[in-house]
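Project standup — Tuesday

K.O.: blocked on the structure for the chain from last sprint. Re-posting the sequence here as requested.
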Amino acid sequence: MTILGEDRPDVEDTTVEELRAQQEQLEQARRDLADRTRQERERAAQQLAAERRRAERELARRQREIDDAERRLLRTERRLRRQGAGSGASVDLTPTTRRRRRSRRADDDLLDAARAEASTRVPRLWLAATLALAAGLSLALGSALSAERVERGQTGTLTVLDTAQADLRDAVSVLDTELVRYATGEPVPLDGAGQLPSVTTAQEVLARDGLDPFAAERLAEVEPALASDTVSPVRAATVWRDTRLDMAYAVSSWDVERELEAMRPGSALGTTLLWAGGLLLAVGAVVLLRAGARVAGAFVALAALATSLLVVQDTQPGWREAVTAHEDATDRPGDLQRVVQDDLQVLVGLRSVEPWEADDEYGYWNQHYALEEGADPDGTVAQVRADLGRTLAQEGGQEAQRTAALDLVAAADAARAPLEADLVTAREAVVAEATTGPSTALLAAGLGLAVLLPFAGLGAESIARRRKEEA
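H.V.: unblocked you, prediction finished:
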């Protein structure tokens, strides 16, 4: 029992924080022990791997020594047999002692193991030959497909579409003239068919074979508002704008792009087969080099590089450049006519120009983005536009406005003529690229090297091995 006044040691209770700290210390010790165990295991695995590599290298060195000993033994045996045959004496090369027989038996076992090891590389030559054969077939088929070209007679649809677009732009120019005359009090009379001359011209263009007949039907529904005095100016201007758009887009650019895609030389399948053939040759070269067949591997690697001659002719840089030039040449005449459309909309009141914009040096009548791209090289259209802007700003009479507007239409037609000629040149370049095949010499050289080099390398490797075995 406890006696009052007795001197006893103090008892300290362990708190929760101290228990948690002790537990963390135990966990940390356990983690440290696990890390040390893992490091010891990794170090042991590395040492074991190093020992294994050293053993493999030692076995390989001994195998080479055995191979060299076998070759020296065979050469000595052949030399002695030749000497004995030349002197007429018989040479007995059979071991006489039991010790030599045991040694020879052990050597034979080592030589058999060496031959078995060497024979494991033969199937790789057959694998490389199979890859070379598959690559040759893939390259031959890919070259045949990529060399396909359309006949010149099959390019007529592109000519029909381009010519129709050019003729429709002429009809749009006539329609602009009819609008100007209507807006200045001199409407154009209808022709014998009861239609505007521009609409009749556009319908004749769209009646050609190979064009969309529904576009002509839409134009037939156009009200001849520009030839009547009873129609309001706003209605007449709206009809002009809608008819102009129908004419401009009667032959869709999608139709032209679809025809260009159909004329594209070569094929996607041919390109895929060419790349597949080159990849197969590269894999074959790696297989041969890993098998120790350096001569055959070098030949197959050269064949893989020779496939670049086939891929180069399949890239078709000339075709892409011709198509891009054709697209640019198709857009320029239409851009120029859109400038005229914007200006005539100001004339008929469909578009307003602020006074500050009309008088400014960089205002509407003095600048236009479409004229800065070579559509107006001598500045004639820009000058006529500026004159029309001044005439409208000064509120000149109908005669002055008619003269200025007709001058704008005529100047735009004159500037459009060389652009139409450029379009014809661009179309001829596209047709030439679509119908001209690749270089026969380039195809023959690339295909011949890619097909023959692998088999030449495999043949050289087989001869070298045979000679090595006979030596």
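K.O.: great, moving the ticket to review. Residues 37-76+108-120 form one domain. Confidence is low (pLDDT under 50) at residues 95-103, 114-123.
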